[in-house]
UniProtKB/TrEMBL annotation:
Name by which UniProt lists this protein: carbonic anhydrase
Keywords: Lyase, Metal-binding, Zinc
Cofactor list: Zn(2+)
InterPro entries listed in its UniProt record: Carbonic_anhydrase, Carbonic_anhydrase_CS, Carbonic_anhydrase_sf
Catalytic activity: hydrogencarbonate + H(+) = CO2 + H2O
Family under the similarity heading: Belongs to the beta-class carbonic anhydrase family.
EC numbers: 4.2.1.1
Organism: Flavobacterium procerum
Source species, domain of life: Bacteria
Pfam short name (any one): Pro_CA
Regions crossing the membrane: none
Amino acid sequence: MRKFYEQLLENNKKWVETSLAKDPNYFADLAKGQQPPLLWIGCSDSRVPANEIVGAKPGEVFVHRNIANMVVHSDMNMLSVLDYAVNVLKIKHIIVCGHYGCGGVKAAMGNQSVGIIDNWLRHIKDEYRLHDKYLNSIEDETERFNAFVEINAKEQVYNLAKTSIVQGAWKNGQDLMLHGWVYGLNSGFVTDLNVTISSNEELDSVYQLDL
């Protein structure tokens, strides 16, 4: 256990040395500030590294991660990240990225209690209820799982569009596009779910806020 911890510190030193060898001003430039064009909302899964997936450098992606890449309207952590990204950093794109094989989505499809996370998974279960006819029509369990991962990512894009933060940016004429992706753990490729929203007019009227 101690050896693993010490190796982390050693890895950090090597990373700093390598970065400075490529660019002596690397960290000095990073310290001046950030102006990323993208907010990434992804899963906490350790196999889904946001920057590496899109080939981005430090400073190019603002990141929020939680179990199953959820956008929950009562989650002040997510809302705080979203507000800062949209209203301070003026990001242009938000990507909600799920991933095939997501443990959170899988757990939400079952009935076994896994602890306090049950309360978080309830949001995902609610989504299953809305799409149960389609999902239950898929006989193959893996295909049904993959389909629900995709549905979950799409639903989070719409949840983003329903927030006053995003709709306020659109009202103010800010360029902001929301996208839904799913990442393949066994391939490295992302799948664009073709759900891109750039105005609240693409939502049901009940969700269009009069700001």
